[in-house]
Amino acid sequence: MMIVEERNYAFAPTDLPGFLKIYEEEGVHIATRVLGNLLGYFRTEVGPDLNEVVHLWGFKDLNDRALRRAALWQDAEWLDFAVRCPSPIRQRNRLLMPTAWSPIR
């Protein structure tokens, strides 16, 4: 069974385009190289949480997640990227466990 981490970052309206640009050009490649299993990356279009990105990452288990997240923050390329990247004004993370009938297991 896999766990899915849902990460939600809210940006100031003027920061979101810059974040999406730099993340597409640099960040996603670094993060995927270290974290591995990117299940999806989305931006909100309507609703109460505008200017938010939502990304889903799959991990074998909590230990796999912990090791990969720690490795990300030890990666020189990621650290260089992170200091140049717009910072979210709010972040929310959740760990999701699939049900027995979930297509993602």
TrEMBL record:
Pfam family, one: NIPSNAP
Residues of the NIPSNAP domain: 4-103
First and last residue of the signal peptide: none
Gene3D superfamilies, per the entry: 3.30.70.100
Coiled-coil ranges (or none): none
Protein family (similarity comment): Belongs to the NipSnap family.
Protein name (database record): NIPSNAP domain-containing protein
Organism annotation: Sphingobium xenophagum
Biological classification of the source: Bacteria, Pseudomonadati, Pseudomonadota, Alphaproteobacteria, Sphingomonadales
